[in-house]
User: Fold Multidrug ABC transporter ATPase from Microbacterium saperdae.
Amino acid sequence: MSAQNSEPELSIRRLDRFLAFGALGIAAASVICFFAIIIGTALGMDQAAFGGGVWPVVAAIPFYGLPAAFIMIIVLLVMSFIRKGRAASRS
Assistant:
């Protein structure tokens, strides 16, 4: 038996899509950079090697990226709950 869903289908807005894919992309880049640092350390790179070149940027991406992705996911969830609550109160 199939249950009929009487709730109206909510459309996915552009901002929702941006937050979802942005959070996914930032989190993926952060994890990749985190593993790059682990691999670089395992290969014997010292502190001086991590201080120059592209390594400060690679180290900053997980430091700022993971909290930013977490905040984007929380904002997406709150917006979704508010939209679903408004849609339920209309019907």
In short: The radius of gyration is 20 Å. The chain has a mean pLDDT of 88. The CA atoms of residues 5 and 28 lie 35 Å apart. The chain is about 75% helix and 0% strand.
